[in-house]
Design goal:
Keywords: ATP-binding, Cobalamin biosynthesis, Nucleotide-binding, Transferase. Belongs to the Cob(I)alamin adenosyltransferase family. The chain has 190 residues and is mostly helical. It has helices at 25-48, 54-74, 88-104, 118-143, 148-171; strands spanning 12-15, 18-21. The protein has a single domain (22-77, 86-171), classed as Cobalamin adenosyltransferase-like (Hypothetical Protein Ta1238, Chain: A). It has a two-stranded antiparallel ribbon with strand order 1-2. The protein is elongated, with a radius of gyration of 18 Å.
Protein backbone atom coordinates (compact mmCIF):
# COMPACT_ATOMS: atom_id res chain seq x y z
CA UNK A 1 0.00 0.00 0.00
CA UNK A 2 1.32 3.43 -0.92
CA UNK A 3 1.30 6.23 1.64
CA UNK A 4 -0.02 8.72 -0.86
CA UNK A 5 -3.34 8.50 -2.69
CA UNK A 6 -3.48 11.78 -4.64
CA UNK A 7 -7.21 11.96 -3.82
CA UNK A 8 -6.66 15.05 -1.68
CA UNK A 9 -4.90 17.04 -4.36
CA UNK A 10 -8.17 18.89 -5.00
CA UNK A 11 -8.35 20.12 -1.39
CA UNK A 12 -10.78 17.50 -0.14
CA UNK A 13 -10.39 14.62 2.29
CA UNK A 14 -12.31 11.57 3.33
CA UNK A 15 -14.43 11.20 6.41
CA UNK A 16 -15.75 7.81 7.37
CA UNK A 17 -18.81 7.88 5.13
CA UNK A 18 -18.20 11.01 3.06
CA UNK A 19 -15.85 13.67 1.70
CA UNK A 20 -15.36 17.28 2.78
CA UNK A 21 -12.92 20.11 2.22
CA UNK A 22 -9.68 19.91 4.16
CA UNK A 23 -10.66 23.16 5.87
CA UNK A 24 -14.01 21.82 7.09
CA UNK A 25 -14.69 22.36 10.81
CA UNK A 26 -14.81 18.60 11.34
CA UNK A 27 -11.38 18.08 9.81
CA UNK A 28 -10.04 21.08 11.73
CA UNK A 29 -11.30 19.55 15.00
CA UNK A 30 -9.91 16.06 14.60
CA UNK A 31 -6.77 17.42 12.92
CA UNK A 32 -6.03 19.57 15.96
CA UNK A 33 -6.57 16.53 18.17
CA UNK A 34 -4.03 14.70 15.99
CA UNK A 35 -1.61 17.59 16.47
CA UNK A 36 -2.15 17.38 20.23
CA UNK A 37 -1.44 13.65 20.09
CA UNK A 38 1.92 14.35 18.45
CA UNK A 39 2.81 16.86 21.18
CA UNK A 40 1.69 14.36 23.83
CA UNK A 41 4.05 11.84 22.21
CA UNK A 42 6.91 14.32 22.51
CA UNK A 43 6.04 14.90 26.16
CA UNK A 44 5.93 11.14 26.73
CA UNK A 45 9.38 10.78 25.17
CA UNK A 46 10.65 13.50 27.53
CA UNK A 47 9.05 11.70 30.49
CA UNK A 48 10.70 8.42 29.54
CA UNK A 49 14.08 10.19 29.49
CA UNK A 50 13.73 11.44 33.07
CA UNK A 51 14.07 9.27 36.16
CA UNK A 52 10.95 8.87 38.27
CA UNK A 53 8.55 9.74 35.44
CA UNK A 54 7.46 6.26 34.30
CA UNK A 55 3.94 6.60 35.73
CA UNK A 56 3.56 9.96 34.00
CA UNK A 57 4.78 8.37 30.75
CA UNK A 58 2.23 5.58 31.19
CA UNK A 59 -0.54 8.15 31.72
CA UNK A 60 0.54 9.96 28.57
CA UNK A 61 0.47 6.75 26.54
CA UNK A 62 -3.10 6.10 27.68
CA UNK A 63 -3.99 9.69 26.79
CA UNK A 64 -2.53 9.19 23.31
CA UNK A 65 -4.74 6.13 22.83
CA UNK A 66 -7.76 8.13 23.97
CA UNK A 67 -6.91 11.05 21.71
CA UNK A 68 -7.10 8.60 18.81
CA UNK A 69 -10.52 7.59 20.15
CA UNK A 70 -11.61 11.25 20.22
CA UNK A 71 -10.38 11.81 16.67
CA UNK A 72 -12.12 8.66 15.53
CA UNK A 73 -15.40 9.76 17.08
CA UNK A 74 -15.16 13.05 15.19
CA UNK A 75 -14.21 11.48 11.84
CA UNK A 76 -17.61 10.00 10.96
CA UNK A 77 -19.92 11.72 8.52
CA UNK A 78 -22.88 10.10 10.31
CA UNK A 79 -21.78 8.02 13.31
CA UNK A 80 -23.84 5.21 14.77
CA UNK A 81 -23.69 4.90 18.58
CA UNK A 82 -21.97 1.52 18.45
CA UNK A 83 -19.07 3.08 16.50
CA UNK A 84 -18.21 5.69 19.16
CA UNK A 85 -15.33 5.03 21.54
CA UNK A 86 -15.26 7.87 24.06
CA UNK A 87 -17.24 7.78 27.31
CA UNK A 88 -17.66 9.71 30.54
CA UNK A 89 -15.36 7.41 32.51
CA UNK A 90 -12.39 8.76 30.56
CA UNK A 91 -12.89 12.31 31.92
CA UNK A 92 -13.56 10.94 35.42
CA UNK A 93 -10.25 9.06 35.38
CA UNK A 94 -8.48 12.25 34.32
CA UNK A 95 -9.99 13.95 37.38
CA UNK A 96 -8.48 11.28 39.63
CA UNK A 97 -5.10 11.73 37.94
CA UNK A 98 -5.33 15.52 38.29
CA UNK A 99 -6.06 15.20 42.01
CA UNK A 100 -3.17 12.76 42.42
CA UNK A 101 -0.69 15.05 40.64
CA UNK A 102 -1.96 18.22 42.27
CA UNK A 103 -1.56 16.70 45.74
CA UNK A 104 2.21 16.48 45.14
CA UNK A 105 2.63 20.19 44.47
CA UNK A 106 2.64 23.25 46.68
CA UNK A 107 -0.58 25.29 46.55
CA UNK A 108 -0.88 27.86 43.79
CA UNK A 109 -0.98 31.53 44.74
CA UNK A 110 -0.57 33.19 41.37
CA UNK A 111 -0.71 32.32 37.73
CA UNK A 112 2.48 30.61 36.58
CA UNK A 113 4.53 31.00 33.44
CA UNK A 114 4.69 27.94 31.19
CA UNK A 115 8.12 26.35 31.42
CA UNK A 116 10.53 24.87 33.92
CA UNK A 117 12.04 21.56 32.96
CA UNK A 118 11.91 20.41 29.32
CA UNK A 119 9.21 17.88 30.31
CA UNK A 120 7.10 20.50 32.07
CA UNK A 121 7.49 22.89 29.14
CA UNK A 122 6.35 20.14 26.74
CA UNK A 123 3.32 19.47 28.95
CA UNK A 124 2.44 23.19 28.93
CA UNK A 125 2.55 23.11 25.12
CA UNK A 126 0.16 20.14 25.27
CA UNK A 127 -2.14 22.17 27.53
CA UNK A 128 -2.37 25.06 25.08
CA UNK A 129 -2.84 22.84 22.02
CA UNK A 130 -5.51 20.95 23.97
CA UNK A 131 -7.35 24.22 24.62
CA UNK A 132 -7.22 24.96 20.89
CA UNK A 133 -8.54 21.49 20.10
CA UNK A 134 -11.36 22.07 22.54
CA UNK A 135 -12.21 25.38 20.85
CA UNK A 136 -12.28 23.63 17.47
CA UNK A 137 -14.64 20.97 18.86
CA UNK A 138 -16.91 23.66 20.33
CA UNK A 139 -17.02 25.34 16.91
CA UNK A 140 -17.87 22.00 15.30
CA UNK A 141 -20.60 21.35 17.90
CA UNK A 142 -22.17 24.66 16.88
CA UNK A 143 -22.50 23.36 13.32
CA UNK A 144 -23.42 19.71 13.80
CA UNK A 145 -23.98 17.20 16.52
CA UNK A 146 -20.90 15.68 18.15
CA UNK A 147 -20.44 12.96 20.74
CA UNK A 148 -20.50 14.96 24.04
CA UNK A 149 -17.84 12.93 25.89
CA UNK A 150 -15.21 14.20 23.43
CA UNK A 151 -15.75 17.80 24.52
CA UNK A 152 -15.77 16.90 28.23
CA UNK A 153 -12.60 14.83 27.83
CA UNK A 154 -10.69 17.66 26.14
CA UNK A 155 -11.83 20.13 28.78
CA UNK A 156 -10.53 17.89 31.55
CA UNK A 157 -7.40 16.96 29.61
CA UNK A 158 -6.08 20.53 29.51
CA UNK A 159 -6.36 20.60 33.31
CA UNK A 160 -4.49 17.30 33.43
CA UNK A 161 -1.62 18.73 31.37
CA UNK A 162 -1.39 21.72 33.74
CA UNK A 163 -1.27 19.44 36.81
CA UNK A 164 1.25 17.13 35.12
CA UNK A 165 3.52 20.07 34.20
CA UNK A 166 3.50 21.32 37.80
CA UNK A 167 4.22 17.80 39.11
CA UNK A 168 7.07 17.34 36.62
CA UNK A 169 8.66 20.57 37.83
CA UNK A 170 8.11 19.70 41.49
CA UNK A 171 9.61 16.22 41.14
CA UNK A 172 12.67 17.72 39.45
CA UNK A 173 13.10 20.33 42.19
CA UNK A 174 12.31 23.12 39.71
CA UNK A 175 9.95 25.73 41.19
CA UNK A 176 7.20 27.08 38.97
CA UNK A 177 7.82 30.68 37.92
CA UNK A 178 4.97 32.88 39.08
CA UNK A 179 3.57 35.62 36.90
CA UNK A 180 5.25 38.54 38.66
CA UNK A 181 2.87 41.28 37.54
CA UNK A 182 -0.20 39.49 38.84
CA UNK A 183 -1.78 39.47 42.27
CA UNK A 184 -2.53 36.44 44.38
CA UNK A 185 -5.53 34.84 42.68
CA UNK A 186 -5.66 31.44 44.34
CA UNK A 187 -6.50 30.95 48.00
CA UNK A 188 -4.17 27.97 48.36
CA UNK A 189 -6.82 25.52 49.48
CA UNK A 190 -7.25 22.62 47.17
Amino acid sequence: MKLYTRTGDDGSTSLIGGRVGKDDAQVEAYGTIDELNAFAGAARAAALAEPGMQRLADMLEEIQQELFDCGSDLSYASPRPEQLKTNGEMAERLERWIDELDAECPPLRRFILPGGTPLAAALHVCRTVCRRAERRVVTLAGERQIHPPVRAYLNRLSDYFFAAARAANFRAGQPDTEYARGADVFRGDR
